[in-house]
Amino acid sequence: MYPGNKRKKLWREEKERLLKMTLEERRKEYLREYVALKDIPTWMEEMRSKNESDGENAKEDVQGKRSLSEKVSLYRGDITLLEVDAIVNAGEVLR
After folding, report:
1. For a Cys staple, 83 with which of 34, 66, 70, 87, CB 3.0–4.6 Å?
2. pTM for the full predicted model
3. At 62, is the secondary structure helix, strand, or coil?
4. How confident is the model at residue 58 (pLDDT cuts 50, 70, 90)?
């Protein structure tokens, strides 16, 4: 077997092993602390919290943005600690 094929086989075996594990079993294998997705507020939750602390009505401010704001979260911190399947870290494009 060629070295590349051996690595591919080992990768597939590891992927299958991880897919069979429960979340609790996977967490036992983490080497350091993590941030669970449920602990990161969505954009809407963040806006509600800010508006409530400012004494404003959150419904009026987010009415038209409801679908996107319920799906998107903004996170400030070490993104390598996030317990997620994928990370999109888009940089700002300046022209």
Report:
1. 34
2. 0.54
3. helix
4. very low
Neighbours of 38 (CB within 10 A): 7
16 pLDDT tier (thresholds 50, 70, 90) = very high
Helices and strands counted in the chain (H then E): 5, 2
Q: How many angstroms separate the CA atoms of 93 and 31, rounded?
A: 35
Using CA atoms of 27, 32, 38, 41 in order, give the dihedral in degrees to the nearest 10: -170
- Could you give the CA distance from residue 30 to residue 22 in angstroms, rounded to a whole number? 13
Distances (CA, A) of 43 to 15, 50, 68: 32, 11, 8
Task: Locate 19 and state its tokens.
Answer: 């897919």
CB 73 within 8 A of CB 42: yes
